[in-house]
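note to self — DONT lose this again. spent like an hour looking for the file last time. sequence + predicted structure for the chain T wanted, 378 res
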Amino acid sequence: MTQIQPNPQSTRSTAAPGNVQAPAVLAAGPTAGPLTPEELQLGARNHSMPLEALRRDITPPGLHYVLTHFDIPFIDPAAWHLRINGAVERALELRMPALRKDPAITVPVTLECAGNGRSLLKPRPLSQPWILEGVGTAAWTGVPLAYLLGKAGVLPNAVEVVFTGADAGIQGGVTQRYARSLPIHEAMRADVVLAYKMNGNEPPPQHGYPLRLVVPGWYGMTSVKWLESIEVVTAPFTGYQQAVAYRYQDSADDAGTPVSRIRVRSLMVPPGIPDFFTRSRVLPRGPVMLQGRAWSGAAAVTAVEVGIDGKWLPAHLEESAGGFAWRKWTLPWVADPGEHELSCRATDASGATQPLEQNWNYQGLGNNVVQRISVRVE
């Protein structure tokens, strides 16, 4: 049944999707066929970070991955304002000049799309066809969310905070504004930021201008862009992007479990030079420094191993720029002539290690399978 959510951030409308007893169908079921025109269209609208950008500590905005569910809204900064209401002692309405006068922090954060790696799954769930590059690391500057919630005064019976952006559209038959929530304890973390700068400058339109939420450690769907309202609620938010999308499901009928923290992952800068069409790699024999980045939203990365033709070797880890920013790793390799397979896998302090096989699920989320690169040494 089609659910209509014209205003999913309000307390009254968030209860409406609770009538849904089973997950809605997000799209056609997974397929073993070729990429569809719809997937290619999504792939053209959104873009991934070229893997050679892993050489940079901070990703320039034009190289950082972008996932936009609906249209990029055109926002007049002079007319824009942020509403904070709901289960608070006092509602707030803030404009950008006032926000810029509040205390600010800068947090380096690795953001990754929850669907990164989806197109590698077999059968392939139909949605944005990420390969491995739906990631980027930026320095986000803005007001700590906890500071503004403190000014508003969160009531004792509050359980979640709902964030709604200016972007609107239809997904799964549901008309909606893009909205997600955080539990109170996550929203009150000191490092969750309402960002009005990306790498020291105003964020480009596709990255959420003039204000976006940035939640370190969580997959990117949580960091709502084009933020317009924040509502503190006394019951769990059941909007589409929370209750239907972004859930680990075994099948279309499975209610699933919510996606939250980023699973441990590492990626390698492909060595050598690429063939234009196939992107296969060619490099000369001799010494080469393999390098890449590793990150996790659950715990600090503690080790990276590099696989060379199936033999795993420990890489050298450098210090991270922040608690939720990726870590650079390196490994020297003397490349012998012939065909080789390179791979990398990370482990974090929780003991989680990247799997060698796919993490299949119905929506194609959290697939942190190890990267594999075929190279020819001449």
